Amino acid sequence: MIWYSEIDDLRFETRKVGIFRDGSFGLADANTERGGLWLSEKPLPSFADIAAQSEFDPEAIDEIEFEAVWEQAIAHFSANDD
Question: What is the mean pLDDT of each successive set of 10 residues along the chain, which is 82 residues long?
Answer without folding.
Answer: 95 97 94 96 95 93 96 90 58
